[in-house]
Amino acid sequence: MPSHFFRRKATMSNADNRARLVLKTGSLVFGLSALLLLATPALFNELLGLATNPDLEWSMRMIGITLVALAGNMFSVASRGSEASVRFSARVMQASAFALGVLTLLIPTAQTWFTIGYAAIGFSFSIAYTIALGFGSKADPQQ
């Protein structure tokens, strides 16, 4: 491996390492969601409390394939991205994870154990990104 690779790893901040870990973990969760959406969209709809139909199942598959791309990009940024790109991606995912939680709770149907759990996962990732980024403070002197 090139020597600049090791130098970059040695100089990464704690916040950067934490953000990379959350991005990698999030990519695995999104990857699993993507597989569920692609393989069994009707089950996913039922778990969300939605009446399933072929049109909605098709839409869920389209979301699933989009999540495959997102999961891959999250993993790529976490594995190979610069510190600036990791921080940018973490900020985008911080807001997106929170929005996913809110939108899940706003599904126009009765709440199920799955919708509450899925929303909790979104909020948990938003909190994890917030912690990883250091709450926007100067908690990490290397930043």
Task: Write a short abstract of this structure.
The protein has helices at 3-11, 14-39, 41-47, 54-80, 83-105, 113-132. The protein is mostly helical.
Describe this protein's structure.
- The protein has 143 residues and is mainly alpha-helical.
- The chain has one domain (13-136).
- The protein contains six helices and no strands.
- It has helices at residues 3-11, 14-39, 41-47, 54-80, 83-105, 113-132.
- The longest helix has 27 residues, at 54-80.
- The radius of gyration is 17 Å and the shape is globular.
- It starts with a helix and ends in an 11-residue tail after the last helix.
- The model is unreliable at 3-8 and 139-143 (pLDDT under 50).
Walk me through the topology.
Blueprint: H1 3-11, H2 14-39, H3 41-47, H4 54-80, H5 83-105, H6 113-132
Element-by-element helix/strand order: HHHHHH
Strand content: under 5%
C-alpha termini separation: 25 Å
Mean pLDDT: 88
The biggest beta sheet reads:
none
